[in-house]
Write a structure and sequence with these properties.
The complex is a heterodimer of chains A (about 350) and B (about 260). Chain A has about 350 residues and is mostly helical. Chain A has 14 helices and three strands. Chain B is built from eleven helices and three strands, in the order H-H-H-E-H-H-H-H-H-H-E-E-H-H. Classes of the chains: A mainly alpha (about 350), B mainly alpha (about 260).
Chain lengths: ~350, ~260
């Protein structure tokens, strides 16, 4: 049993866990068969088995039974239910449209019904249901209250509220000015920009996947992998000193993790050219500047010839530029993860003199 | 029998009754119009809705539930304000009192779990709107209002997190607000802040940067508690309420619940 638990712990190491989540995500999104009723229940059983059996483990139990972690459980199930519900209807509609039929919603979108009773009663029932569940939840689970606030005694680990743990997890890979300020800002700006970037007129007011492959795939990637999965990781798998702890591992505050990460400039000057680091930061960081500029220009350009060829032809340059800036900023997170896992890269650009590290 | 019917009739015709209920039970077309038109809460709805749009499997009721949870938070929060004083002397003991002294008290629980549920409900609502492509023209503007409301929801939850003034609260806010010190140009440890100086005097330092403004001090303390309390109970709910008014109004103006054209 212990051996098995150890294997599971290893499966949840950040590189493996995020890697598997990404692969699993693309397999889910691109296979039509998955979105059947059977797999809905299979997903629920898998989730329930994982959480149910894991709760028997004293170490996992300690984390999952924290009252403020219950919402994450709800979030995980809700994410699966809503994902399934939308994709199931999308695939059904896609199949209908292949046969030349209109989407399911079209069948009665022309008909109108009275708001009273059809809409009002649905709302009432939903309110009663959710209100009732909240009352039950409140009776059986007390709101947490720890020791009085003490600025001199910082708990280890110190964690932000659960919905920000994805951002806190980003701090492993990026400095606070990016992970805590620029990226959250870009998430908000990026969400607001969606209707102005996505010029595709199809899929307005009904579920579909085929007609909106690009938009749905990458929105879901951001939402599921870079938000939900990272929150899960930040809550259940990060212990003292924000070190990684497997789900069944004891949160030992003395666990040491070797910091072996080095900067791109060190790779470039010391490892490859066998030279001391230039003292002038502008010269020292030239490889980083080139790499960053290349990432934002060359990748965007290459995509116009390959993956996004058709889309690029239909977009104005400004629109495409904004799309690429936002898209590549989002992809900068998984990219930095890969560079960290495989090359122990700390910073692409490191100018600690000005707190400017990327 | 006929006497009972007479009593019913005279009640229904009385000045008192007709002042409150201006029409009969909505089981005729005329009354179904009137019930929506003459009730301030119900008139958020149109009189008639697209049949495809009222189905649970299409909307998941997520937007409506977000609003319901906001109302629930307002009511429970108001009750909590009777007991809670936002100073470091009283905040923690008031929460203890709330737990120990108030009989059958689940208001704090309802408020806290309701807040978590609201965060999830708003995410689900956004997810549904995205998956049905409902942000597409003519609803681009309303999607933007919605994104702002999502941010406000998170800020409401974040500011409320500090108020119990226990270890969980103060350190979560410390971790969360530590990011602000790295804001480019505006935080004292942010890139570019060192460039903003006049001679030897730096304009952005630990005593005046954006984090200081947020916390009302150099660390999470009495000033922060008051600031977060005012933001949580007054400022953000007001802005969010205004945003919701625009959001709901825009839903109507853009043609109600989305559907295939």
């Amino acid at each position: 049993m212990d051996l098995f638990k150890e294997q599971v712990n290893r499966l949840f190491e950040p590189a493996t866990f995020i890697g598997l989540s990404t692969v699993g995500f693309f397999m889910l999104v691109y296979s039509r068969r998955v979105w059947s009723t059977t797999s809905f229940w299979v997903g629920n059983v898998v989730l329930t088995l994982f959480f149910g059996l894991s709760a028997l483990d004293p170490n996992f139990n300690k984390v999952i039974t924290k009252p403020d972690n219950i919402p994450i459980l709800i979030m995980v199930y809700t994410a699966w239910w809503t994902l399934w519900l939308s994709m199931n209807q999308a695939i059904t509609n896609d199949q209908r449209m292949e046969l030349g039929l209109p989407p399911d919603e079209q069948e009665d979108s022309g008909k109108k019904v009275w708001a009273w009773p059809d809409l009002v009663y649905t709302e009432l029932l939903a309110m009663l249901l959710v209100g009732g569940l909240l009352v039950i939840w409140s009776i059986f689970l007390k709101a947490p209250l720890e020791e009085p606030a003490n600025i001199a005694d910082s708990p280890n680990p110190s964690k932000a509220p659960w919905y920000f743990l994805g951002l806190q997890e980003m701090l492993v890979y990026y400095d606070p000015w990016l992970a805590g300020v620029v990226f959250p800002g870009l998430i908000v700006v990026g969400l607001m920009a969606i209707p102005f970037i996505d010029f595709n007129p199809l899929g307005n007011g009904y579920f579909t996947f085929r007609a909106r492959k690009f938009a749905i795939t990458w929105f879901l990637f951001g939402y599921i992998v870079l938000w939900v999965v990272l929150i899960f990781l930040g809550t259940f798998l990060r212990g003292p000193n924000w070190n990684f702890y497997g789900p069944y591992e004891y949160w030992d505050p003395h666990k040491l993790e070797a910091l072996v990460n080095i900067n791109l400039s060190e790779y470039f000057w010391i490892k490859w050219f066998q030279q001391p680091l230039p003292s002038n930061w502008m010269i020292r960081e030239i490889p980083g500047f080139v790499a960053t500029l290349a990432y934002f220009s060359v990748v965007g350009f290459v995509l116009t010839k390959t993956y996004l060829k058709q889309m690029h032809q239909q977009m104005t340059t400004i629109r495409y530029g904004i799309l690429m800036t936002l898209f590549l900023s989002m992809m900068a997170l998984p990219l930095k993860m890969l560079l960290r896992w495989f090359f122990d890269l700390k910073y692409v650009i490191a100018i600690p003199e000005y707190f400017f590290n990327i | 029998m006929s006497r009972l019917a007479n009593v019913k009739k005279s009640i229904a015709r009385s000045q008192l009754w007709t002042a409150f209920f201006r029409h009969g039970y909505p089981d005729t077309d005329r009354n179904r119009v009137l019930v929506i038109m003459s009730n301030v809460l119900l008139h958020l709805h149109p009189v008639k809705v697209r049949k495809s749009g009222v189905k649970m499997k299409y909307t998941w009721c997520a937007g409506g539930l977000s609003f319901f949870l906001f109302l629930l938070e307002t009511i429970t929060g108001l009750l909590l304000m009777f007991y809670y004083r936002p100073t470091i002397e009283y905040a923690y003991v008031d929460i203890i009192d709330l737990r120990e002294q108030v009989p059958l008290g689940i208001m704090r629980e309802l408020h806290r779990w309701g807040a978590h549920a609201m965060v999830i409900a708003v995410w689900v609502h956004m997810f549904r709107v995205f998956m049905t492509g409902s942000y597409k023209p003519p609803r681009e503007f309303n999607w933007n209002v919605g994104v702002i409301l999502l941010v406000l929801t998170l800020l409401l939850s974040f500011t409320g997190y500090l108020l119990p003034w226990d270890q969980l609260a103060i350190w979560a806010i410390t971790v969360g607000s530590n990011m602000a010190r790295a804001t480019p140009f505006l935080g004292h440890e942010g890139p570019g802040a060192a460039l903003l100086r006049v001679g030897d005097v730096s304009l952005v330092h630990i005593g005046d940067d954006v984090r200081f403004a947020l916390l009302g001090g150099r660390f999470v303390g009495a000033g922060t508690l008051l600031r977060f309390y005012v933001l949580h109970c007054v400022a953000i709910p007001l802005i969010a309420g205004f945003g919701m008014a625009i959001h709901f109004w825009r839903v109507r103006k853009d043609g109600g619940i989305s559907g295939p054209l």
